[in-house]
Design goal:
The complex is a heterodimer. By secondary structure, chain A is of the alpha/beta class. Chain A has helices at about 1-5, 10-25, 30-40, 65-80, 90-100, 115-120, 160-170, 185-195, 205-215, 240-260, 270, 275-280, 290-295, 300-305, 310-320, and strands at about 40-45, 55, 60-65, 85-90, 105, 120-125, 130, 135-140, 150-155, 175-180, 200-205, 220-225, 230-235, 235-240. In chain A, a hairpin with a 5-residue loop joins strand 2 (about 55) and strand 3 (about 60-65). The chains are: A alpha/beta, B mainly alpha. At the A-B interface, helix 1, helix 2, helix 5, helix 6 and strand 9 of A face helix 3, helix 6, helix 12, helix 13 and helix 14 of B.
Chain lengths: ~350, ~400
């Protein structure tokens, strides 16, 4: 893993130049889905190690919230959620990888922003996770709020939106700080744990995982209250292939709509005989939504049966029984005061 | 008679064939063809990249350099804030690369020369220790050495429990903070006086050499020279009324106030890359010393030169001729090795380039800028070392 960094620059050059030559043309409508079907699997770019979102176990089997969304895409296309190949990508590698066609879709803690949507040639599906910049600090340092961090050394990863957000958070409060920017996640967390930094900053949703898995005594660290920036995490695809973009978008909406209609992994087979036309449409009992999207009509049924609705996925990774219990906060349905709003499946 | 020779009559076409078959002409044709092919390949790659980037609606060009960076940098040699441009951020990164490289080259050279001389020492223990050192630092990947030093420094006590260096500074996992003279206008003039001292010593050395060649008499300018180098700045300092205010560091907030701080990332990176290079430099120095023929030393002894002069006027000039070219490539590779700063978080050119690349998404341009800068820095280093090599090389007469 460490040696990965040494070759980062050269591998990146390879990714950028090599892949642009090899796959550059692959962005016309319909190309991606056809290529995915011909290949027999979806190439999904994920975070190399973010507990709760994407991490491989000792057998190399990936699990996590975003990993499940990759599985959902595969379930929609192939009726088989396992037909995914995961490509672990660093912050630097992720955009060249999606641009060059090395992966079909990014589900890698990508914050949807205007700059990325335009200058990077990406399209963002609806956000699947709403979070913001958070700070992890040592309990005995007596830091209660972000204003107490004036003059602190702050550890962060390079190239993330976090770097920019921290600059704005501190500038807005006329405070100073010393950024310590480390790319390798292990080295980054280590720098915080050993005391090089007073605070570790990441997306707020990523910090409980660090506290639970990477610190010796999780109770000695606390998350500062409050969220200090908007970080809507969404799946991203290349611009130019509208059919593929539509599919990824509706896979996302299907998980929202299923939760709203109370169709879950546990009851999806019973719900198939529901008289509710909305449920029937969702599950492909009536209508031809599948054909419109270029996949099997039971696409949403397959997602829910094999992966689950939004709540199933969320609870699997952030529920009270998971090692990283995270309050759903804004990641609830709009009818419960949250931000998840699935468009109608008509 | 000549006119009757059929070969002579066919002269024009034969001359044509001569040109076609001539070695130099053919060589030139092949060279031109090869250069053309390489050029075309480069052009094709460039156009392919540009075309594909445009087709995918990805921004291209270097306009992004003028945009506002919106991120902070931990250590800067020049004024910088998140309201400056990406270009300035990259300049900050380049200066940090040069800073760590310069310090690393000095440390690697000092350690390398000492260890190299110890390698040929007659003292058994010293020689063994030097050999062991070389084998260890040379054979462990540089990235692991840098991570090792970073881990060592991180495990120093936190600022609140920092080791107090008898009132002169603190050593903690935030780096080394030491008392420094409070800034004063005298300092600039003292530096100028120092430079003047060095220049005078060099001039003196030239004069001494001419004098020796003309008269055969040796004038030792070492001590007068050193006196100039130390004395001139001292005089300037006294002339300014001997300002002696010193900024002492003290614990304040999360860190220290006052004094100067060397960051842990800088120390870890510099130590790692320079010790790694010192192993190679030690071997180069050893090879250089051993490459001087034994007869040279014996001949020098036989004309009753003092041992100090043997080293200075006989062994060293010949050893340097062997040492300098491989030393150049060590310096260049040390500069390039500094790019592993990303692992420990030192804000060098690559680290900042990474951030710029990710914020703008212009990977091709950002990488191109980084490659170009490293190329220029390495070529300049080689050129300077080649000039130095020409100075120390024994002039063939």
């Amino acid at each position: 893993m460490m040696m990965l960094n040494a070759t980062r620059l050269s591998s990146l050059v390879g990714v950028v130049i090599g892949a642009l030559i090899a796959h550059g043309a692959q962005a016309n409508s319909g190309d991606t889905l056809a290529a995915v079907k011909a290949r027999g699997e979806v190439l999904c770019g994920v975070h190399p190690a973010r507990h709760g979102f994407a991490s491989p176990d000792s057998q190399g089997k990936w699990s996590g919230f975003e990993v499940d969304f990759c599985h959902a895409v595969a379930a929609a296309i192939f009726g088989d959620a396992t037909k995914v190949r995961f490509v672990a990508l660093s912050s630097q590698q992720r955009f060249p990888a999606i641009q060059s066609g090395e992966v079909d879709v990014l589900a890698r803690n990508v914050t949807a922003t205007l700059g990325r949507d335009t200058a990077l040639g990406l399209n963002f599906a609806p956000p699947i996770f709403y979070t913001g910049t958070g700070f992890l600090v040592r309990k005995d340092d007596g830091i209660a709020k972000v204003e107490d961090l004036n003059g602190a050394a702050i550890c962060m990863a390079p190239g993330s939106t976090t770097e920019r957000n921290v600059a704005q958070i501190f500038a807005a409060r006329s405070m100073t700080y010393t950024p310590v920017v480390i790319e390798n996640n292990k080295q980054l967390v280590d720098a915080y744990v050993t005391g090089r930094c007073d605070a570790l900053t990441k997306d707020k949703a990523a910090l409980p995982g660090v506290r639970a898995f990477d610190t010796e005594d999780p109770s000695a660290h606390v998350l500062l209250p409050g969220i200090y920036s908007k970080e809507p995490l969404a799946m991203a695809v290349r611009q130019g292939d509208d059919q593929w973009y539509d599919l990824i978008k509706w896979v996302t909406y299907a998980t929202f709509d299923a939760e709203e209609m109370d169709v879950s992994q546990a009851n999806v087979d019973e719900k198939k005989s529901s008289k509710d036309p909305d449920v029937q449409t969702l599950l492909g009992v009536i209508g031809d939504n599948g054909a419109k999207l270029g996949v099997d009509n039971a696409w949403a049924y397959n997602i829910i049966k094999q992966v689950g609705n939004y709540k199933d996925i969320y609870m699997r990774h952030f529920g009270p029984e998971s090692p990283i219990a995270l309050d759903r906060d804004k990641n609830t349905l709009w009818i419960q005061g949250g931000l998840l709003y699935g468009l109608p499946m008509q | 008679m000549l006119d009757a020779n059929p070969a002579y009559r066919q002269r024009p076409s034969r001359r044509m064939r001569d040109i076609l078959y001539s070695e130099s002409f053919r060589t030139a044709i092949y060279q031109i063809a090869l250069a053309g092919a390489v050029g075309l390949l480069g052009l094709f790659l460039y156009q392919n990249v540009i075309e594909n980037l445009q087709r995918q609606n990805i921004a291209t060009g270097f306009g992004f350099l003028r945009e506002i960076s919106q991120f902070e940098i931990g250590e800067t040699l020049i004024e910088y804030s998140s309201r400056d441009t990406y270009f300035r951020a990259l300049v900050v990164g380049l200066l940090n690369t040069l800073k760590v490289s310069a310090a690393g080259i000095v440390l690697a050279t000092l350690v390398g020369f000492c260890v190299g001389i110890a390698r040929v020492s007659n003292n058994w223990l010293l020689q063994r220790i030097a050999t062991g050192y070389v084998e260890i630092v040379r054979n462990i990947p540089v990235i692991l050495q840098v991570i090792f030093w970073a881990a060592v420094i991180r495990n120093l006590p936190a600022p609140r429990q920092a080791l107090d260096l008898w009132g002169t500074g603190f050593l903690s996992n935030r780096g080394l903070t030491v008392a420094t003279p409070a800034s004063d206008p005298a300092h600039l003039w003292m530096i100028l006086a120092f430079v003047a001292g060095v220049a005078l010593m060099v001039a003196g050395d030239r004069w001494a050499k001419r004098h020796r060649e003309a008269t055969g008499r040796h004038v030792d300018i070492l001590w007068p020279g050193l006196a100039l180098i130390v004395g001139l700045p001292l005089l300037v300092w006294l002339a300014f009324g001997a300002p002696h205010a010193i900024s002492f560091p003290e614990r304040k907030g999360f860190n220290f106030a006052g004094g100067s701080t060397v960051s842990p990332e800088f120390v870890a990176l510099m130590t790692g890359i320079s010790l790694y290079a010192s192993g190679f430099i030690a071997e180069i120095v050893r090879a250089g010393i051993q490459a001087t023929p034994k007869g040279q030393v014996e001949a020098a002894r036989s004309i009753a030169l003092r041992p100090r002069f043997i080293m200075r006027y006989v062994v060293l000039p010949q050893a340097l001729r062997v040492i300098v070219p491989p030393l150049t490539s060590q310096y260049v590779s040390l500069i390039k090795n500094s790019s592993i700063a990303v692992v420990v978080g030192y804000p060098d050119l690559v680290n900042i380039g990474n951030t710029v690349m990710n914020q703008t998404g212009q990977a091709v341009e950002a990488i191109a800028v980084m490659m170009l800068v490293y190329l220029i820095v390495s070529l300049v280093t080689s050129t300077l070392m080649n000039l130095y090599n020409r100075l120390v090389a024994i002039k063939e007469r």
